[in-house]
Amino acid sequence: MRASTFKAIATAAFAAVAAIPAASAADLAPRYTKAPPVVVAVYDWTGFYIGGNLGYSWGRERTDGTQSGTQNVSVFRTAGPVLESSVTTALSAPLTGRANMDGFIGGGQIGYNWQRSRWLFGLEADFQGSDERATAGVCTIAGCPLGSAVFTANYKLDWFGTVRGRAGFLATDRVLLYATGGLAYGHLSADDPLVSFGWGSTRAGWTVGAGVEAAINSNWSVKLEYLYMDLGDFGGNSASATVVTNALNTPTQGFNTVTTTTLASAVNTRFTDNIVRVGVNYRFGGPVVAKY
After folding, report:
1. Which H or E run includes 230?
2. Among 228, 218, 220, 123, which Cα is nearest to 166's?
3. Is 265 within 8 Å of 273 (Cβ atoms)?
4. Is 25 inside a domain boundary?
5. Residue 22 falls within a domain, yes or no?
6. Range of the structural domain that residue 139 is part of
7. For the ranges 36-40, 125-129, 191-195, 272-276, which has the lowest average pLDDT?
8. pLDDT value for 32
9. What share of the chain is helix, strand, coil (3-state, %, to 5)?
10. Please, which pLDDT band fits residue 34 given cuts at 50, 70 and 90?
11. What is the pLDDT of residues 141-190, one digit of tens each?
């Protein structure tokens, strides 16, 4: 073998051996790839929900009215008897009464939410049982000083409900701040069993309020809510009551004075309420969506 040929073979072999570490280093070098997108769970409030609540109410009732009737004073001679004189007078006096009707409330609610970005709109209806009650005098003078009471009334808000719209802003994905308002309805009763006088009815009014609601997991949320409610006026009329008194030897000896008084009351009670309640809601459906 010629020297030149051997030299060429040796040179090629050396180059091949020298290339092995470089290739191995290239195979071991780190390779960079684009990271997959991050999936973020976002709470979605849209959907039907149902729940319950408990709270306390500070109600205020204001009763106004009129007591009216007639009074007849007749004088008789006891010998006979013989009517000497008879005078009839119309009577009228204002009636007034005030009372705080405080008590516990509790009930349930159902509704639906629509979420649009960070805004929420919804409808909610609720029905409440009530322990709000009070006993107060109805008098001819404001403040009911001694001697001015006509009768004593027992007041009670038996139940009430609302149908309201809700509009709110999501402070975070799971914390909702909202305002609410709409229709209110309820039944107020009042009576004085001593004079067999009672009134009350189911009335419709209005309510406004605000609240905060926070999601605690995928379906459950808790809320704190305030409502002002005005149920308007409840009216009633009593039956006529007649009282007859006899006074012998008036105005002088040998005479009898008979006084006949007939009275009836017409009253109107206005009721407003301040309500604070806490509640829990269960929302149907999956509330979490993926956001990339």
Report:
1. strand 220-237
2. 123
3. no
4. no
5. no
6. 41-291
7. 36-40
8. 56
9. 10, 70, 20
10. low
11. 988 898 889 999 999 999 999 999 999 999 999 999 999 999 999 999 99
User: Residues with Cβ < 8 Å from 222, sequence gap 6 or more?
Assistant: 213, 214, 216, 278, 279, 280, 281
pTM over 0.85: no
Q: What torsion do the CA atoms of 277, 166, 186, 94 make, to the nearest 10 degrees? A: 90
For residue 57, give the amino acid letter: S
Poorest-confidence range of 100-114, 209-223, 240-254?
240-254
205 neighbors 267 (Cβ within 8 angstroms): no
Q: What is the CATH number of the domain that holds 225?
A: 2.40.160.20
- The one-letter amino acid code at 136 reads A
Report the chain's mean pLDDT, rounded to a whole number.
Answer: 87
CB-based contact 219:282 (threshold 8 Å): yes
Asked, for residue 20, whether it belongs to a domain, the answer is no
Number of domains in the chain: 1
The partner residues of 210 in beta bridges, in order of sequence, read: 179, 226
DSSP-derived letter for residue 127 is: E
Length of the chain: 292
